[in-house]
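Hey, quick one: can you model this chain's 3D structure?
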Amino acid sequence: MRRYIYTIVLLAISIIANASPATDATINTVDTTTQDIRKFNRGLTNYRFIPQKEWICGITASYTGYNSQDSDIALLIKDFNFTGSLFGIHPFVGYFVSDNNCIGVKLGYSTTGANLGKINIDIMEDMNIALPNMAYNAKIYSAGIFHRAYLGLSRNGQVGVFNETSLTFESGTSHFIRGDEETGIQDTKTVSNQIALGLNPGISVFVLNNVSANVSVGILGLNYKQSKQYTNNIETGMYRSSGANFKINILNINIGITVHI
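Sure thing. Here's the predicted structure for all 261 residues.
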């Protein structure tokens, strides 16, 4: 009986002794895997695209136009006459505090115009909608600071991508006019002030040694806005609004030329 007890004890000691190295080996394997993950190279190299102490200046512009005569919607609505346009221009200047990192100042001017001459909608015999003589126009001035971080994609420094983070203050006035001389013209004016934080990724390509072409698009915006409204020069209200969005803004696509000094 004692012989069996001794055999069982020796067997248990042998199992424990053999299990300990296995545990150590497992730990070592995990550590080795972790070290491999930390040393993993994805093959991304940030080449120097624009050197430190370089100045840039340039201008970006955007334009969008619309005419109901060029749209298929005019075939569905009777007597639809609408034109609209959006235009923006933004000069800027910046300085590279280090390789591929720039801080700068940007100014801006944008205008929006829309004119609805007339629209008649006949859905059924008893349901007709007519909206004549409506117009909207707005002018916005802006000033702000920005930071651009570039990523060089080629060894020769010809192509790169960037992300621009900007903090902008905007002030503008808009008018919404409707009616005619017979029914009376009503002019609603809105005076707005806004502060906004935006992200604008883009791509930059050198077309000459000191000139690059840039395309960027807004994808993120945080803003706070305060507006006062007047109808026929009489104050009718005030409102505040704030918001955030994370999407591609097709109205904020900018194409520009940058000069490097």
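One thing worth noting: The domain at 43-260 is CATH 2.40.160 (Porin).
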